[in-house]
């Protein structure tokens, strides 16, 4: 049977399991045994992919209750699991020459926040309804390097520097970790001389379209990858509309979505590497499953 996308693969689980905090069971009054970590790890992506409400998580799947998965998502966010997983996958992509930091692109995207909460505001593109904004920075191939959540009324240019600083030091090769791209592409929403100067002070060359000029600057041929990254993030139904009142829970979903995109890219790049040995008789087709 074809594997469901929310079922954690062995390769991904090998990377996640060492990052999870160990919870010792009490010897006296131990209570009910905790749900298996891997089962809970499958329940969280199930909600991320389907957008289902936590309380409607089907029990027959064996992923535990929705509230249990919500608590694991919260606890692992506080323990830094999702961020470290994203950094680990970025390092592996760089080690396999599947990460291109020769240039980067940034952009923001609105989404409705149905229940309100922190990091929300009146959206200027949705008739003033309460909304939030995703801010994403990607490499030359569209791999998400960092993503943040703000209120829907926050201007894109005000989040430019926080987004650049959110990019972690990416290891994977000998020498110092890489954190800064060379040029940075952005649309007219980021056109401001003060921020251009601040970006240059970080050693990054800003390539930002000018306001009031005609379209056709040629920057779009490099900047389209960030739009493609938003398409991939919107494939997760939970990231199309914000249902979480707490911004940290929604940020956990957003970081996990970026990590899953990196994992897919890592698998695809590994499949493109030619095999050093011919396929064995146990695998006549030579296709990895």
Automatic annotation (TrEMBL):
InterPro entries, per this entry?
IS402-like_dom, Transposase_11
What domain of life is recorded for the organism?
Answer: Bacteria
Pinpoint the Transposase IS4-like domain residues: 104-260
Name all Insertion element IS402-like domain ranges: 9-86
Protein's name according to its UniProt entry: IS5 family transposase
């Amino acid at each position: 049977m074809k594997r469901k996308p929310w079922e954690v693969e062995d390769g991904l689980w090998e990377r996640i399991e060492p990052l999870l905090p160990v919870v010792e069971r009490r010897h006296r009054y131990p209570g009910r045994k905790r749900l298996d970590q891997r089962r809970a790890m499958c329940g969280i992506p199930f909600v991320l992919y389907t957008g289902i409400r936590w309380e409607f998580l089907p029990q027959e799947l064996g992923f535990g209750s929705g509230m249990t998965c919500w608590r694991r998502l919260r606890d692992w966010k506080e323990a830094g699991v999702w961020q470290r997983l994203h950094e680990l996958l970025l390092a592996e992509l760089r080690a396999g020459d599947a990460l291109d930091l020769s240039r980067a692109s940034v952009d923001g995207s609105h989404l409705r926040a149905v229940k309100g909460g922190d990091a929300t505001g009146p959206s200027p593109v949705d008739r003033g309804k309460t909304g939030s904004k995703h801010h994403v920075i990607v490499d030359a191939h569209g791999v998400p390097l960092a993503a943040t959540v703000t209120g829907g009324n926050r201007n894109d240019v005000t989040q430019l520097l926080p987004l650049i600083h959110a990019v972690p030091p990416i290891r994977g090769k000998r020498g110092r970790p890489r954190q800064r791209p060379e040029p940075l592409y952005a649309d007219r929403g980021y056109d401001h001389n003060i921020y251009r100067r601040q970006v240059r002070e970080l050693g990054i060359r800003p390539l930002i379209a000018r306001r009031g000029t005609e379209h056709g600057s040629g920057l779009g041929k490099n900047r389209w990858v960030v739009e493609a990254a938003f398409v991939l993030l919107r494939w997760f139904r939970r990231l199309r509309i914000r249902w979480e009142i707490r911004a940290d829970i929604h940020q956990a979903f957003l970081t996990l979505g970026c990590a899953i995109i990196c994992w897919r890219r890592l698998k695809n790049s590994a499949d493109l590497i030619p095999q050093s040995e011919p396929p064995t008789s146990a695998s006549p087709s030579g296709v990895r499953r």
